[in-house]
Automatic annotation (TrEMBL):
EC number annotated for this UniProt entry: 3.2.2.n1
Organism the protein comes from: Effusibacillus dendaii
Classification via InterPro entries: LOG, LOG_fam
GO molecular function: hydrolase activity, hydrolyzing N-glycosyl compounds
The protein's name: Cytokinin riboside 5'-monophosphate phosphoribohydrolase
Pfam families associated with the record: Lysine_decarbox
Length: 198
């Protein structure tokens, strides 16, 4: 594992632990000899992680669509800034560069990025570890929603293993390093194993 793609809010949130844990994640990324790939902003939790990695001499690659955001939001001190045409390309480039994913607290964009990574893992498009930094129980309702989806028959029980949760950045990175992809089998209840491979 060389690079971690971090999805995070472009705001700091209301709980002080959100910012503190973002800073801690930046420290742990450098401590573990890893590089950061993220959305390229200098604000919010995104900016806090990037600033801490840079402060400790780590490498940070930002990926941002050209002209989508105001210029003052773009982090100008990154190791590398990759400009892309749109949000779809942004996610594709970040995914290509990264060996693992971590989601910090964030809003709709963070949820969308996290679920795309999880969905693609479920479909076998990639086998990269996906972590959620569950700061102050931020992701506890989401984890509960996935459990509800399992009970309702829309998600296989084994697919819960695709998301790795921890409340501490160092612990989460170690879990990502130790991750072994589960054997997912057939995703579709109405198809046999042989049908799903056709």
């Amino acid at each position: 594992m060389k690079r971690i793609c971090v999805f995070a809010g472009s705001n700091l949130g209301t709980h002080p632990d959100y910012r503190q844990s973002a800073v801690r994640l930046g420290e742990e990324i450098v401590k573990n000899g890893l590089e950061l790939v993220y959305g390229g902003s200098k604000v919010g939790l995104m900016g806090e992680v990037a600033n801490k990695v840079l402060e400790h001499g780590g490498r940070v690659i930002g990926v941002m669509p050209t002209g989508l955001f105001r210029g003052e939001l773009v982090h100008t001190d990154l190791s590398e800034l990759i400009e892309v045409k749109d949000m779809h390309e942004r996610k594709a480039v970040m995914g290509k560069l990264a060996d693992a994913y971590i989601a910090l607290p964030g809003g709709l964009g963070t949820f969308e990025e996290l679920f795309e990574a999880a969905s693609w893992s479920q479909l076998g498009i990639h086998q990269k570890p996906i972590g959620v930094l569950n700061i102050a129980d931020y992701y506890t309702p989401l984890i509960g929603m996935i459990e509800h989806a399992v009970n309702a028959g829309f998600v296989k029980d084994v697919h819960k293993q695709l998301l790795i949760a921890a409340s501490d950045a160092g612990t989460l990175i170690q879990k990502l390093k130790q991750y072994r992809p589960p054997t997912l089998g057939n995703k579709w209840n109405q198809l046999s194993e042989s049908d799903s491979k056709v």
